[in-house]
Target: Mannose-6-phosphate isomerase-like protein (Cupin superfamily)
Amino acid sequence: MGTTVPRVIAFEQIVIGEARRTVFFEGREYGSGISFFLVDNDPGQGPGLHRHPYSETWTVLEGEAEITIGEDRLTARAGDTAVVGPRVWHRFVNSGTGRLRIMCVHASDTLVQEFEDGVCEPSGRVGREYGRARSCSGKSRRGRTGPGGRFGTPSFRGR
Model:
C-alpha cells in the first residue's frame, strides 16, 4: 500500500445497486487496508450464505439483524457488533419490522467472498446490491474452486 492522499470519496463513487441504498468501499483503490459495505435492507433481505479468507465485523446502526455464524444464530440490534473469523460460513438477514442499516467491515483491502452457490474472486466492483442473494462466477463450494484456488489463494483449505 502506498501513501494515502487525504480526500473525501463521494457517495456517487461508491453507491451500488439500482435502489442506490448500499455503499461498497473497496480500500485498495483508495490506499486503505479495509473494505466495507454500508447496507440498507428491508425486512427479510440479506446476503446468501458466504465466507471470506479474512474476518468480517458488523455493526448494526439501525434495526435488527439475525446473524448466522457457522451453526450459531445471533440477534443483533442497533449499537451491537458481531465478528466472524476467516473461512466461517455466515450471513445476516433483516429480522425486524423496519429497515436494517448495518456496516459490514472486511479486514481486507479487496473484497473476496465465496457464496454457497459459487466463488467470487477479488471483485473490482460489485455489480449488484449487497443484501440480495446472487450467484458469483466460479464453481460451487463442493470441493471445486475458481481460478487460483479458493479465494484465489492456493493455501486456503475450507470445509
Summary: The first strand starts at residue 15 and ends at 16.
